[in-house]
Automatic annotation (TrEMBL):
Stored Pfam families: Aminotran_4
GO CC terms of this entry: cytosol
Classification via CDD domains: ADCL_like
Keyword Lyase: yes
Quaternary data: Homodimer.
Protein name: Aminodeoxychorismate lyase
Superkingdom of origin: Bacteria
Family named by the database record: Belongs to the class-IV pyridoxal-phosphate-dependent aminotransferase family.
Named cofactor requirement(s): pyridoxal 5'-phosphate
Amino acid sequence: MTMRRLINGTPDQVLEPADRGFMYGDGLFETMLWSNGVIPLWTHHMERLQDGCSRLGLTSPDETQIAQDREQLCQGEPSGVFRLQITAGVGGRGYARPPVPKVTRVAAFTPVPRYPLAYWRDGIAVHRCRMRLSRQPLLAGLKHCNRLEYILARGEWEHPDFVEGLLLDQQGHVAEGVQSNTFAVVGDRLLTPTLVDYGVAGVMRGYVLRLAESVGLRPQTGRFSLGTWLQADEVFMTNSLIGIWPVRRIGDSEIPLGPVSMKLRAALLAAGIGLESILERGVV
């Protein structure tokens, strides 16, 4: 299966070169996992999209239109990735938008990535990124279309042992992964960095925070040192595709695997959420 795409609900269209999403990264996107005829975290994705559009001053597309795109692209497929991008469209001069931007809606469907199941069962090695995230509270939490910091961070490693990268902020606090959020288990606390100055407030991050008490943990957001992560009982990474990847190593530091990530993964599997359940069933 190759990528299938709709632009404003129409196939075989070409994106305008003057689209502000292409020219300036002026927009937002959502990456969603299609599994067994549904997108399990659909409501949370739509809530984040609407919040992001409001914060950026864009008109959020009608959810009915987005659902029609989803059905047109995804129906009949056992699994896949549904990506939705909303841009400020064409118009304005330079950085100045037109008074009322006419948004562009780009929907795409691609096969799921076929990661080894060992990433879930045995944990992953994570690169310690040298690049540090800049502070910008106005964009904090948003999955906006300008991803240059993350592209530069991802360019830091080529070694196949490293599956993800861990990003710090300018003060050396743990921030997030290059394509994920990060959690640490310390005693009965489930720690994750606060995202008021930078980062992406992942849909899976929110889901895991809501699950914390069900596995006997107290969720806590805040600013945490790298040392906290290196000395934690467990560390894991999350996003809406992978679900949860336990971390066995950060840079040269070994991290123990433990029961919390196993319990949380079991909860996701039981709910049919995340790529692990798709790969286990072989429905790709």
